[in-house]
Amino acid sequence: MGAVNCDGTRASGYFWSAALGWSLVWNQDQETAIQSHQGGSKLTWSGPPLMPRSGRDRLRFIVAPTSGDSRTELQHLISLGASESRTDDDSGTILVDPDGNEFVLKRSEQL
């Protein structure tokens, strides 16, 4: 797969670049793309205008902290621009990125 395209702004591209530690490989005309240092598929954001939201996101990322400390990772993600959406569910803590896209942070005991 060449790329996974996401509906989103430059702010989300910057957020996910910092959150995952991936390089920003495209940043032009409100479009961004990131890629792992190891290569592989890219994640891209096509810029505004964003599609209207209706209901829960069909797809969402699941993030697992590499250190095993989900509380520290939660604070890190919030400092980068994430917001807590719900305290947690069976999957972990539900957060949203700068564009309001939900993602899950796994709890330490789930790793």
Features:
111 residues; alpha/beta; Signal recognition particle alu RNA binding heterodimer, srp9/1; 2 domains; 34% strand
Cα end-to-end separation: 27 Å
- Judging from the principal axes of the Cα atoms, what is the shape? globular
Mean pLDDT: 88
Main beta-sheet annotation: 4 strands, mixed
Helix content: 10-25%
Strand line-up of the largest beta sheet: 1-4-3-2
Radius of gyration: 14 Å
| N to C succession of SSEs | EHEEEEHEEE
Report the strand count. 8
Layout of helices and strands:
Blueprint lengths: L2 E4 L3 H11 L2 E6 L2 E5 L6 E4 L15 E3 L6 H11 L2 E7 L2 E5 L5 E4 L6
Parallel strand pairs: 1-4, 5-8
Antiparallel strand pairs: 2-3, 3-4, 6-7, 7-8
Model description:
The structure is a single chain. The protein has 111 residues and is α/β, with parallel strands linked by helices. It is 20% helix and 34% strand. The protein contains two helices and eight strands, in the order E-H-E-E-E-E-H-E-E-E. The strands form two sheets. It has a four-stranded mixed beta sheet with strand order 1-4-3-2, covered by helices on one side. A four-stranded mixed beta sheet has the order 5-8-7-6, covered by helices on one side. The chain starts with a strand and ends in a 6-residue tail after the last strand.
